[in-house]
Predict the 3D structure of the following.
Amino acid sequence: MTAKRPGSDINWIALHGDFFRNVRVLVTGGAGFIGSHLTEALTTLGARVVVLDDLIGGSTDNLKGMDAVDFVHGSILDQSLVEKTLAGCRFVFHQAALGSVPASIERPRSYVEVNVTGTLNILEAARLSGVERIMFAASSSAYGESPTLPKSETMPPSPLSPYAASKVAAEALMSAYAHSYGLDTVSLRYFNIFGPRQNANSAYAAVIAAFAKSLLQGQPPVIFGDGEQSRDFTYVANAVHANLLAARCADRLNGIPLNVACGEQVTINELALKMAAALGRPDLKPLYKPARTGDVKHSLADLRQVRAAIGFAPLLDWSAGLEITMNGYREAALEINPTV
């Protein structure tokens, strides 16, 4: 019997019924952090899930215990493979991408190739195979450093990094294909998604995963800047819910961008203090380093458009999601080292 995973107690069937039962879907990047949570929900809902993942940022361990998943090891840059995996699919949940603002500044060409050309490959294959709709994992980094809060989808994009620019370019392709070919698409702009299975071992780990790793190792969390920058931290189940709602939407979405967030503003200093307390290390005060190029100061989502378009509202606020996530990190640490 498979052990219950942290955060896996969302009743997806109560939320989404039988809509996905026996429906063939493709999840690109499905062995990654967000992709594996989406894959898990879809299998629970009875979908026939194909996962395409090159395992550069993901792991098959994230798919353990998930029945009826057809895993394909490969890249979205492989056009012929993309076409094969898309055959017979009604929906595509396009999560595959290179992440991280700092890494994109070091390797901009790689980010454009994977995040833009890879997305073009998905769109072309979907157009030719008769896919009904693509849900694209877009990014709140599209908003850049605009001082306007909250961030509304009507604001013009202002990307500050190659990563952000690649996501905005992919959004443009989603819109272009929706209007040129009749293939319906939607760009879900994720705001700082976090939760169990987020990789804490990468040099470019997201802040919650990075803080958890440091605190569990008895080291102070590192904050880049003064810590007064703020984020709209969003528990991963909310991103999964938004994808499922978008797929079920009866109306055409025509490539529109939609914010996916909780609509709550939290400073990095506040986050560090809350996490240190939750992990029993309030003595570990943050270590401050210079701010990083490409990082935005403040981020907060306006949820009016996503609510109107697909009926999205957060399932869990950031505090409840953080508690689940901290329990997951704590249990993982205990399994590795019972003395932690």
About this structure: The two ends are 26 Å apart (CA to CA). The first strand starts at residue 24 and ends at 28. The CA atoms of residues 76 and 118 lie 5 Å apart.
